[in-house]
Amino acid sequence: MSLLKVENISKSFKTLQVLYNVSLEVKPGERHVIIGPNGAGKTTLFNCITNLLPIDSGSIYLDGKEISKLSPHHLVHLGMSRTFQKNNLFGDLTVEENLHLALVAKKSYRYNIFSPLASRSDIKKETNRILDQWEISSRRHIKVKNLSYGEQRLLEVLLAMASNPKILLLDEPTSGMSPAETAQTSEMIQKLPRSIALVVIEHDMEVVFAIADRITVLHHGEVILSGSPEEVRNNEMVKEIYFGGGAKQHA
Amino acid sequence: MKKIFIYTVLLILLVLAMPLVLSDFGINLATEIYIMSIFAMSLGLIMGYAGMVSLGHAGFFGIGAYTVAVIGQYVSNSYLLLLISVVISGLTALITGVVFIRTSKFYFLMITLAFGQLLYVLFWQLKPWTGGADGMSVSAILNLGFGEILSPNAFYYVMGVAFIIAYILLRLFVESPAGKITKGIMENEARMSALGYNVRVYKLLAYTLSGALAGFAGSLYSYFNVFVSPDLSSWTFSGQVMVMVIIGGVGTLFGPAIGASVFICLQNFISTYTERWPMIMGAILVILVLIGKGGIIHWLRYFKDIIFLRKQTDEGAPQNQVKKEEVVN
């Protein structure tokens, strides 16, 4: 059974149709990459799936449960979390404090108003585990706004992972990165455990083919093709619209 | 945490020791400062930790004050009366908050302003119960089981203890998971929602706590002042307490209390010299806001840091400097 199933969703902003009958299926543990030129509606699709934007029609299922009407915070508790295209962190807090905030979300004491958060040992332990695993322990006391861009992107993913999701939506994890940082991030994504299904929006073709099990091509709000990396690589129409007419002109 | 504990102990000692040096007038002034500090801290909580700037907070203060004045005619137990005040103002905050927190920034400011004025008019119009524009005198006498509290000294200690309790409760809230989450929501609401938090619950929680605490301050004021009038809920009073929060330091817990102290001391000091004290007061506040951007508490911290750092270098401990560099990086 598919973990996430998007069925014929449409979304328009006033007269502008952004998504047109988009369908998508993600199996547990799958790496699903969404590609498409700028303005294809990729981020809008993410925003619709996580209900930051209400959809006009269609339905979305997570684990067989209709989720298109559920609020964003509810989805996290059902096992779906996301990152943002632009870094969306708590700049004035330290790395450690950012992780604390992310980790408390699933704790039963998140409504507690009397006992200090700092004295919770389970949060400390989990934070240390994450910091060690990603080798950023030395950066724990640094304010997030003072981190390098690449480190901020990493933290962005770590915050989304803190809720221990079944499915993680990554919105352009390598946007604005140097080639070296991009390679690092690509490696990091490949290192993520297979227990998490990934849906990734990505522009960098090297990264796309390095991580993808399946690729969906979005163009002007419509799914052009959804298939294996090989199918996508060899598809004439995809070459035409995505890789541009440039290849032809050179030939 | 250790630091906070030390500060709290120092604060308690300060409150207990003050009457030894103060005149009767000073004791009265300090008592008023404690009450206003509780009120200012309650507003400071939602302004500095939840990002909600309210211009109707005096509404809750008025509810607390009138509860003691009106219900105090029939109920004599002070504990019960204080509890009723806190519950009524808290419930009012909870119910109105459900609507108010859906708005943000200027709209929140406007809707809370309207709410405060609504209560002001209500106290004005309900003449049979509240005495209308003339106000009413408070017949209830504070009695916490140690006899009736009437002398300035007794009032001083009661309000001092109330202030310390309010401070500790707020400190606990700010350090608690819910408090940290509320602060996170102020910084980045969309992200907190994406992390799995129901942001409205936390905003409502902070608003309710704040309203209940403002009501508590109002009920204490009622006992202290033995007279209440609709002005306690007027928007000018809301504005005044907002000024206290801003000059003291938004985003800190103790800042609003310092702001309240400075405001009340200045007000009393200047008004002994001239009737035109609001003019001078206004000028001073403009200067305070212009040059002291983070509020007075940040000046105090600045001076403390200077002294603290000097001590560090004297001892030849470079540890602190390394830490500082790291932070800059």
TrEMBL record, chain A:
Residues 4-245 form the ABC transporter domain. InterPro entries: AAA+_ATPase, ABC_AA/LPS_Transport, ABC_transporter-like_ATP-bd, ABC_transporter-like_CS, P-loop_NTPase. GO terms for molecular function: ATP binding; ATP hydrolysis activity. Transmembrane segments: none annotated. PROSITE patterns: ABC_TRANSPORTER_1, ABC_TRANSPORTER_2. GO terms for cellular component: plasma membrane. Pfam families: ABC_tran. Keywords: ATP-binding, Nucleotide-binding, Transport. This is Amino acid/amide ABC transporter ATP-binding protein 1 (HAAT family). It comes from Paranoxybacillus vitaminiphilus.
Automatic annotation (TrEMBL), chain B:
It is found in: Cell membrane. It holds the Pfam family BPD_transp_2. InterPro entries: ABC_transp_permease, LivM-like. GO terms for molecular function: branched-chain amino acid transmembrane transporter activity. Its main location: membrane. GO terms for cellular component: plasma membrane. It is a multi-pass membrane protein. Keywords: Cell membrane, Membrane, Transmembrane, Transmembrane helix. The chain crosses the membrane at residues 33-51, 58-75, 81-101, 106-126, 154-174, 201-221, 241-266, 278-300. This is Amino acid/amide ABC transporter membrane protein 2 (HAAT family). It comes from Paranoxybacillus vitaminiphilus. The lineage of its organism: Bacteria, Bacillati, Bacillota, Bacilli, Bacillales.
